[in-house]
Each structure stands twice: as structure tokens, then as C-alpha cells.
Amino acid sequence: MQTDRTLPAGVAASPLRSPRPRRDLFVALALAVGLAAVWPACAQPAPPAPAPAAAPIRIALIEGLSGSFANAGEAVYRNLLLAVERVNARGGVRLRDGARPLQLLRYDSKGTTEEAIAMLRAALDAGAGVVMQGNSSSAAAALVDALNKHNEREPQRQAIFLNYSAVDPALTNEKCSFWHFRFDAHADMRLAALTEVLRRDAAVRRIYLIGQDYSFGQYVLKRGREMLREKRPDIEVVGDELHPMGRVKDFAPYAAKIKASGAQAVLTGNWGNDLTLLVKAAREAGVDARFYTFYGNGLGAPAAIGEAGVGRVLAVAEWHPNLGTPASDAFYDAFRQRFPKPQDDYVHARMHAMVELLAGAIERANSTQAAAVALALEGASLAGTPLAEFHQGTLRASDHQFIQPLVVSEMQRVGTPGVRFDNEGSGYGFRTVLRLPPAQTELPTTCRMSRPSPERP
Length: 457
Hints:
Elements: E1 2-3, H1 25-42, E2 57-63, H2 70-89, E3 93-95, E4 98-100, E5 102-108, H3 113-125, E6 130-133, H4 137-153, E7 160-163, E8 180-182, H5 187-200, E9 206-212, H6 215-231, E10 236-243, H7 252-261, E11 265-268, H8 273-284, E12 290-293, H9 301-305, E13 313-317, H10 326-338, H11 349-365, H12 370-377, E14 394-395, E15 402-403, E16 406-413, E17 428-436, H13 438-441
Parallel strand pairs: 2-5, 2-6, 6-7, 7-8, 9-10, 9-11, 11-12, 12-13
Antiparallel strand pairs: 1-5, 3-4, 13-16, 14-15, 16-17
């Protein structure tokens, strides 16, 4: 089912103006939204009728917006909406024939690959030249394949695919596509950051590997073992176990095995209840080990894990709210002002970077034609964007993988040193353990990309 939501009044629908001098864009966004709210009360005399709005540039979000994954889909939508509003608050995307606003459309995949493909067709029929998706690597792979075929079959209706969360390394390796760009660190990159912390912790001698029994969970354990062998051959793997995904209600037997093994660390790709129940069971069993996770700071996880995670749960991401710089704090404060409910507090810098780089690529290409925008995205950098003061990153041309910092952080109570902000009002936040610059997160690629060669406008 398609739901077409236009942007808030005063942002996408406001009359477009010529470029203004550089100013604090986060403040500009707040002013733009605030002005829209108070204008009717202060308009004396009534303003002239606005000029017809320029045709928007349509972006389609294809995500699970109903069912068991609806909260994750809505969290993505909030990030993308604020990023789009920020671009529109400064006048939209500047093209030779005038500026145009971005418009974010919502398409509910209901968490299934089949429905994601159906929503792709609906988005293309609605004129979207950009599709965005991320929560599921299997859905992402299917979308890449479908878009490759569509773009070859209908060159006049081509589109690009911007991926913010699907982390299967194959998507920018053997299955890479000219039309696909990934803005999240893939699984190998995240594992490399986590195992770098383990490499530096000489006290860890025994580690337990545990994961969900499906492709992603299996991959994390396999590659985790390989990376540990390379970086810390002295660490003994005292357990390597897979469990049914989403079906285990009592992790006490697993916790008992971890305790009996004497493990000082646990490496897992678990997420959702499979992560929170595992950590809680480990605490109840008296397991004295730290959990190296992909998603310990993910949606709802800190509140669900609670006290069991303090000093024990580590996570990896491109950014977190307690990075501790003024520009990072301003970015986070702007999000909290726009979405003040604690349950809406789920922020990812990479999603905002994705929209900023898209807007810049359209301007450099002076076109919304998909191939021209894709070529302009290759090698694009965050330098000169509102995010550049606290986040860096470049889209590698060879495979369309975004190379950015990675931060490993540790769960702590809010108010402890380095933890000014908590997650989702839980009272728990994360402090930085290790921050790797882009040059240290980059990994080789096996991508052999086939590129079209359209003339640039």
C-alpha cells in the first residue's frame, strides 16, 4: 500500500529563494519550521499568493512500516524526514532552471522481500528517481537485482538505490552495482572495529561466539573467528554456537554454557530480543564477560537490557550522541527538538549524510537523471556539508561503499564521565571506547563494476 506524504508546510512547500550566505543550517531548519507555525498569527497584512511550487524531486523510502518491524521503519523515516527538511529549509536543491524541494514518499514493504519488490514498482510508477532501503540484506539484494533489470529495460525511467543499513558485504563486492550505494559500514568493517578493541585488550584470553542461526548470524561467527585468528591468535575460542532466531525465550542454558567456559568476552551479531534476553540471562547467571555486539545500542536495546549492560555491552556505529563535540551535540539537539518523545530518540548520522550527498550530487550533475546523479555521487565527500564539522566520509567510486569513521562504545549510566545523553530516555547511554578514522575502517573490495557511459549534462 502506498502512502504519499508531502513535507511539512513552510519547508517543502515554501517559495524557493536564491542561495543565501552560509549560516547555521540546524538553526535555519528550526526557524523555518517555527515560522510556519506562527505565520498566520502575525501576518498583517495578508501575504501575496505564493508562486507555484517547483516540482519536487521524489525520494521513495521502501521499508517495513507495519507489523513487527514497524518501529524500525518509522525510526528510519524520522531520520530521513529531518534530513530532507534541512535541505529544503535552505532553499532545496539548486539546479540551472531553478531550485526544487525534495519530497520523501513512504512505501510499506511489510517486512517482506516480495512486498519490497512490489513497492519498488509502485515507487518507479510514481516518478521516484531515488529509492532508499536498508533493514534486510536479502531485501536489498533483491531490490538491486530488480533495479538493474528495470534500468536496463527502461532507460528513460532509471533510478538509483541508496542503502543505509543492509550490511551484507557482497552488496559492494561480488554483487556490486552501478545503481547501488551503501552508506552503512558492512559486516566485515564492523567486525574489524570490534576485533580491534579485542586486539588491544590483552586481558582477554577466552572468547565465546554465539549468534542467530541464519545467514547473517552465521557469517558474523565465521568471519569473527577468522579475524580473531589474524589479530589475536592467542585468544582461545571456547564456544561457537548458533541458536534458533527469534524463538528462544529462555537463554539460561546458553548463559550457563558461557559461564562454564570461562569466557571473558562474547562476540555476537544478535539483535532484538535475542540480544536483550541473552545479556540479561548472562547477568543472572553471573557471567563475568563483556559482550561485543553490532546492535547493543539499537532501537529499544538499552532500555530492554537495562542494568545488565552497564560496563558489559559494547556496540559499533559510525557515530553516537556522546561523541562529545559542540557540532555533534548541536546535530543531536536538533533531532531531539524535532522529535521530542523519548521513544523517537533513534539517530544515525549516516542517514543524514546520505541525503546531504544526494542533494550535492544532483546539484553537481545539474540533473535528476539517474546515471548522471550516480556518476556525481562517486567520490562524493561530506566536506562542505552541515555534517562535516563532526562527521567525515567519502563514497568510494570503485564499489560505492561509504568510507567513514567507526566508533566502538560501551554502555554506561547517564551522567557518568563521557555519557551526557541517554538512549530513548532509558537512563543508559554509551561512551566512546575507540574511534577509528575513515582511513582505518576502509577494507579492500572485489567489486568489478559495469558502468554505463551517459554524457554529463
